[in-house]
Amino acid sequence: MNITKEASFKGVHNGKPTGLYTLKNKNGLIAQVTNYGAIIVSIFTPDRKGNMVDVVQGYDTIDDYINGNSPYMGAVVGRCANRIAEGKFTLLGKLYTLAVNNGPNHLHGGIKGFSKVVWDVTSVSDSSVKMEYLSVNGEEGYPGNLMVSVTYTLTDKNELRLDYFATTDKTTVVNLAGHSYFNLAGEGSGSIMIRNL
Fold first, then answer.
1. What is the extent of the structural domain holding 65?
2. What CATH number is associated with residue 72?
3. For the whole prediction, is pTM greater than 0.90?
């Protein structure tokens, strides 16, 4: 079990520091989160033989996430998860045009969605980390200043809980989602397709 990745996540992106935060519970489970994209990097849990394995798919360095995270591995996506057709929506009678990044459509927050920014870490404990991001009025075409927080908590019931909260100063659209990929046999153990074990 290799959880010593902290050094490979220390850096600066667009003038803001990046890091890796390791959460632990009383049962020995471990989760790791970076403040770049509020990404879940790892969840170490026992496999059926009792060996600790990382069940989250992802990368080993911050540079890999910044330069190669096209499938949004582990990130918080928003302001709006999923696609908005032709990058346009009408709200309270006004037409808004968004940045398009998926053919003619707007996907997962656009060109610089929440998955591609450094979040501010506002509190940390052994089992929890809270991150915040201010999406300013007009960012990617959305109306209103939107303050978003996500708190990751690794509970003693072996749950990784994600608590989202958002406030705005103008009627807007918000639909946040976590975008992790899992392999319950452990990262690097081969395909997740059904097979005889």
1. 8-178
2. 2.70.98.10
3. yes
